[in-house]
Records
---
Amino acid sequence: MKIKLATLNDIESISLLNHEFWCYNADLQHEYYKKAKESGDYPKNVIINEDSDIFLAVENDKIVGLIHVRESQILPYASIVQHKYAEVIDLIVTETYKRKCIGSLLINAAKKWSKLRNLDYLELFYQMPKVKLFFMNIMLSIQFRILCDTKYKYT
């Protein structure tokens, strides 16, 4: 298993993986997601943007997972100390490769990325109970700060 930084040459493969992920989300949470085909614009914009990257998990020249990580900063609130942090936007592993530590490898790549940029922490928002269980299991080892559980609705 190799973890590598995505390039423009990877857009077609990333688009196929995104399509699979979007269909999966649409089936599970149809009230929030719909099935859609990835045109390639999304991964291209991430790759060329200086504040974000995609890391790929590659096995036998096939992309089997990815993580999209983005640099962000706190908006200017009087009660919060200004700081920068990394956000995990997407974490995808194909069905065949789940439960093989690929998610952890991708998270570690995002963690290194954020440390190289001197960001304060890595943030993740999640929506599904299975995702919550996965991250709760590895939270201590990678020093995650989980800030939002969307099962709680704010009014």
---
Amino acid sequence: MKRIVVVDDQPMLGTIYRTKFTAEGYQVDVAFDGQEALEVIPRFKPDLVLLDLMLPRIDGLEVLKRLRANSAFETLPIIVFSGTARLGITEDAIAAGATMVLSKLNTSPKQVIEIVNKTLAQAAQAPESGKALASAVAQTAAAPESQAKGIIVLLEDHADTRAIISTVLRRKGHQVTSVLAHADAMMLDWEGRVAECTGANIFFVKDGKIHTPLADCFLDGITRQTVIGLARKRGFEVIERRILPDELTSFSECFITGSAAEVTAVAEIDKWNFNPGGITKQLMDDYTAEVQPKGKAAAA
């Protein structure tokens, strides 16, 4: 019987997943803080760990790092399952050794169980795959730095893969621009004007000026507000106004902002194409510098 350890500081969630995984035929133990997790996992010897990040006593990232530092858990599947919307959390978790990163906000219990079943099945078929991946990433990160550093446009629709590639490239000193490579939707308001995307606010650039829909029928996101402030600090004019879909042909750049998207360049919306230009890249850099811990930024 396969064993799973669920690490979550919310007793209700711990109980829910204990019940559901037990019904699937797994033996389950639950830890409610980071210190308890580091005690339970070596004793219970699980085949997989479902790990929250926002934990008392010792946070989830530190738990992850300590487990990966132990050769006994080098290839143990550890799925980070967290509700935090902190920017860069996927990259941090992948860099620390997470097998996969899931969001509590958009992953149902049924989906979690399906992912756990698939992960364990893959681990049973190829027990060395996790070690090989970790080794490949480590070797890439340790490779000699290229003398030529520049801007890299990354198109990848898989969040975990994108996080790994972005982390490695940024460690090498490259500036990475992630362009949406998956299908999203630009939504219109009830009068047929541009409003927002499914989970982000939208901006356009024309003649050096930034245009964005007036936030009167959708959420004025915190990231949106921050980016507007950064743009104005840079001296860019930001115009909040009504925008009609027919105007998109006149814009040269487009980007979206949000807790998950951060500041992300957009290459194409339906028949309209955009180029990630100087303003978009400048705001991506400014936003990263704004939200990244100073110590981490200095070490990067």
---
Amino acid sequence: MRRFTFVVSLFLICLGLASGLSVQDQSKVAQDQTKVAEPEYIEQFLLLDSTGALKPLERQTARLDMKVKKLGLGGFTESYLISGSRSPVRIVEGTDLSAIIRLTSRDIDPATIVQLYRLKAVKSDNRQVQIAISASPKATPTITEDSAIPFEATKYGEKSFRIKPKIGLPPGEYAFSLTTSQDGYCFGIDKAPTSH
């Protein structure tokens, strides 16, 4: 009788361990299934599409452009220029737009380093964002915010942040950037087709 009880107890213990391993395996499978795609490299913006996949944006290095007025006596404007008047990366107006970026640390507040600008086409086949303007040589330059787009940032996955505009973007040219870099990650918004 004792031997029978021992065998039954051993069987129940083994069954419990097997069940525990099964639950752990199922949990791991569930975690793998819910794992999201993240950028491989830091400080690189990627577009998040509706399927959860990440797609590259047009990467351009902006050039600083300064224009003086009246030989400098009338002040100056500072802008960044990006080659080409139109990005090859196109998004339809009304699309749920988000970009994913990995920063050097998850402790960084993205609001202090991430920028989203609307660009405007200028002569010589360039896109431009004006960053500062001064009315006179001695005046402190004023940072222009007309082109800045407000956004919200949330942690995404294990290492990244999700950057999402707070407003719907109208048709035009745009770029994500960092305050620590002159690289712009560009895209364009196209007007949604009208239904007939």
